[in-house]
């Protein structure tokens, strides 16, 4: 019989929920007290929105194995749907608008997920570009979506929940944090359920999945729907809490790629991966601009910044794909294990 | 029918009824099965049994390549039926036809008396048919336990919302599939690797996990495409023991492709021999061993056929 042994030194005995709970306690209890408005406006709000979008795309791509380049379209769909529900449905609470916006994004996700029933891999990725271009085109073309505003740029409604105004930086941060925490928790439950196992089964071997009776078509469309729902809500956070304007321009193909990079760098098929990747994507340009400004002074203008950002990011992605295909999460776990091991053996 | 009390209907009815599981489903069924005596497939009782699976005039070609030509096959309940033949003889194609992965150009597949031009793959598990693949087809990113539990996915009726919120029938289903998966893991001596990712296991163990995933649904018909390919001699005999035990305990009918003639002769009740897509023999091991056409076509060159290619 083949020898069976564990590859790793014994894992820490702490239960798995400890780390997220501590992190949440910190995010709710400590961060609002010590954070500057720069931290909220420039770092934490985009981080939260992009993390959630990463969680959504990870369900589709990381777990169910369906590559998509349409994430920004689903964000846009969510943001504009929430804006219009809020505008046009009398007396609908904000939460209602957000849920309906998620459902609208899910419906669009199902439509643009239909090609996945016939296409896979590269061809599917290209077909999801259709979503990207179509949604952006429709939102620009039909001014009804922007309530006929001349510029196409509209102010997001002020955030409030149960009459409680949340329009300060901290309020918007708590608003985003709460939605991200809830949806991430539900997503985590999903991927460890039978449905989540079906996602992975279809990703790893579609024929075998069909043979054992997993409803392949239904499961793929479900992955598109759930993923688009979450990405749509991420779009609401992006527009309502972070930018406080709703406009199609920010939801372009670059954004779709950015979200794909987030889950590749962070780690596919991992909830934590989306947060790791989003943190890197958000903090990295800021750090680069500080560093560049420090080293090169005035030479380091926004053009140079933009260019160097793309170059370094591109290099990073290639490095990750080659050296650490499982992303920052795997890197983190390995470092942690080493440290723990070193600590235990002293 | 020579299969007392063990029909798919019984399994379906008992699925996820906790009181049935409380009795310990497999063990109670297994002992029941054994106390009533296992079907003796080559005996006189089986001779009158209607076939569980029969193929009638199956023809299949790929472009100019004839994979199967006018193949008939009849498999009785409880039988272990081997299919042997040189590489490219059409063995895998035959299993792909039975499981609906391929649609034959001609002929019909009868499962339990129902005739299909193409077996509906999506309903295969509901029809009580499970299979393994010549090349590993595990879900690499799932643990061994989850791989095996996924073999019960076809009967899950809770929806994703119920599963996320842990309400409705989802809890019972989850518990039952995991406990049934655990029982099969124990049966196949895989408990030690229960929580490992399937993709990280050595080849021989992955083959066995695939058998476990097929067995967990307690299929009436089990199709095994080279379950022992690439194994060491001791792994092979271990696997042979498991296949026989699966048949004996679950009363499963087995169709088995295997290159190792020694293993096949000892394990199977009947052997069908394919050569260039045609069935050239279909008899008991002893008869096949002495069949001149088989010796010419296959047995003489058996040692060249260790590693089959294809699906
Ligand atoms: N999907 C396929 N496409 C094209 N040719 C195939 C396919 N499957 C099988 N064949 C051909 O059919 C013949 C029988 O193959 P196969 O059933 O895999 O044989 P075996 O399993 O006995 O080695 C071979 O010539 C093979 O090349
Ligand atoms: Mg083969």
From TrEMBL, chain A:
InterPro entries: ABC_transp_permease, LivM-like. It is found in: Cell membrane. It comes from the Bacteria. CDD domains: TM_PBP1_LivM_like. Its main location: membrane. Keywords: Cell membrane, Membrane, Transmembrane, Transmembrane helix. It is a multi-pass membrane protein. The chain crosses the membrane at residues 17-36, 42-60, 91-114, 121-139, 159-187, 221-243, 255-271, 278-299, 311-332. The keyword Membrane applies. It holds the Pfam family BPD_transp_2. This is Branched-chain amino acid ABC transporter permease.
TrEMBL record, chain B:
PANTHER family: ABC TRANSPORTER ATP-BINDING PROTEIN, CONSERVED COMPONENT OF ABC TRANSPORTER FOR NATURAL AMINO ACIDS-RELATED. The keyword Ion transport does not apply. It comes from the Bacteria. The lineage of its organism: Bacteria, Pseudomonadati, Pseudomonadota, Alphaproteobacteria, Hyphomicrobiales. InterPro entries: AAA+_ATPase, ABC_AA/LPS_Transport, ABC_transporter-like_ATP-bd, BCA_ABC_TP_C, P-loop_NTPase. It comes from Mesorhizobium qingshengii. Keywords: ATP-binding, Nucleotide-binding, Transport. Residues 53-301 form the ABC transporter domain. This is ABC transporter ATP-binding protein. Gene3D superfamilies: P-loop containing nucleotide triphosphate hydrolases (3.40.50.300). The keyword Ribonucleoprotein does not apply. One of its GO terms (molecular function) is ATP binding.
């Amino acid at each position: 019989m083949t020898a069976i042994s564990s590859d790793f030194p014994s894992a820490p005995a702490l239960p798995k929920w400890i780390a997220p709970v501590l992190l949440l306690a910190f995010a709710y209890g400590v961060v609002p007290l010590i954070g500057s408005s720069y931290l909220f406006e420039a770092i934490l709000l985009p981080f939260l929105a992009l993390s959630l979008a990463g969680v959504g795309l990870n369900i589709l791509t990381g777990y169910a194995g369906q590559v998509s380049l349409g994430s920004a379209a689903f964000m846009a769909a969510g943001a504009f749907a929430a804006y219009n529900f809020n505008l046009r449905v009398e007396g609908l609470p904000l939460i209602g608008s957000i849920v309906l916006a998620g459902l609208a994004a899910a419906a669009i996700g199902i439509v643009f997920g239909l090609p996945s029933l016939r296409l896979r891999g590269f061809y599917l990725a290209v077909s999801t570009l259709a979503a990207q271009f179509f949604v952006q085109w429709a939102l620009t073309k039909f001014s009804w979506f922007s309530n006929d505003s001349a510029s196409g740029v509209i102010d997001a409604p002020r955030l409030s929940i149960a009459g409680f105004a949340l329009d300060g930086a901290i309020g918007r941060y708590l608003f985003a944090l709460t939605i991200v925490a809830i949806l991430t928790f539900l997503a985590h439950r999903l991927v460890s359920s039978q449905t989540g196992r079906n996602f992975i089964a279809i990703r790893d071997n579609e024929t075998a999945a069909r043979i054992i009776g997993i409803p392949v078509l239904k499961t793929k469309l479900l992955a598109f729907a759930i993923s688009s729902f979450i990405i749509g809500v991420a779009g609401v956070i992006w527009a309502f809490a972070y930018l406080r304007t709703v406009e199609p321009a920010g939801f372009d193909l670059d954004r779709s790629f950015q979200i794909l990079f987030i889950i590749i760098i962070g780690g596919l098929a991992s909830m934590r991966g989306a947060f790791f990747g989003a943190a890197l994507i958000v903090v990295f340009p800021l750090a680069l601009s500080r560093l560049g400004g420090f080293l090169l002074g005035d030479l380091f203008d926004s053009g140079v910044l933009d260019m160097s950002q793309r170059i370094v990011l591109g290099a990073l992605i290639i490095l990750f794909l080659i050296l650490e295909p499982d992303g920052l999460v795997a890197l983190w776990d390995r470092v942690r294990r080493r440290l723990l091991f070193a600590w235990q053996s002293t | 029918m020579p299969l007392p009390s063990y029909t798919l209907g019984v399994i379906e009815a008992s699925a996820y009824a906790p009181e049935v599981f409380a009795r310990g489903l497999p063990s109670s069924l297994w002992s029941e099965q054994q106390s009533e005596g296992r079907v003796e497939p080559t005996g006189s009782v089986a001779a009158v049994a209607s076939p569980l699976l029969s193929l009638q005039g199956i023809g299949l070609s790929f472009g100019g390549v004839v994979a199967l030509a006018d193949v008939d096959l009849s498999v009785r309940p409880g039988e272990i039926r081997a299919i042997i033949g040189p590489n490219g003889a059409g063995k895998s194609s035959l299993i792909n036809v039975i499981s609906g992965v391929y649609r034959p150009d001609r002929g019909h597949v009868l499962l339990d008396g129902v005739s299909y031009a193409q077996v509906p793959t999506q309903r295969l598990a509901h029809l009580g048919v499970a299979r393994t693949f010549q090349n590993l087809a595990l879900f690499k990113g799932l643990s061994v336990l989850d791989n095996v539990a996924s073999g019960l996915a076809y009967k899950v009726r809770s929806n994703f919302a119920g599963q996320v919120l842990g309400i409705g029938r989802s809890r019972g289903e989850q518990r039952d599939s995991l406990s049934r998966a655990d029982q099969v893991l124990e049966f196949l001596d895989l408990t030690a690797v229960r929580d490992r990712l399937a993709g990280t296991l050595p080849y021989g163990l992955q083959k066995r996990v695939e058998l476990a995933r097929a067995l967990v649904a307690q299929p009436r018909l089990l199709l095994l495409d080279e379950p022992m390919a690439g194994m060491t001699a001791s792994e092979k005999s271990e696997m042979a023991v498991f296949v026989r035990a699966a048949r004996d305990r679950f009363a499963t009918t087995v169709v088995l492709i295997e290159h190792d003639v020694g293993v096949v002769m000892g394990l199977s009740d009947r052997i069908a021999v394919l050569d260039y897509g045609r069935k050239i023999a279909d008899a008991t091991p002893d008869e096949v061993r002495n069949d001149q056409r088989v010796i010419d076509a296959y047995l003489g060159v058996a040692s060249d056929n260790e590693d089959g290619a294809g699906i």
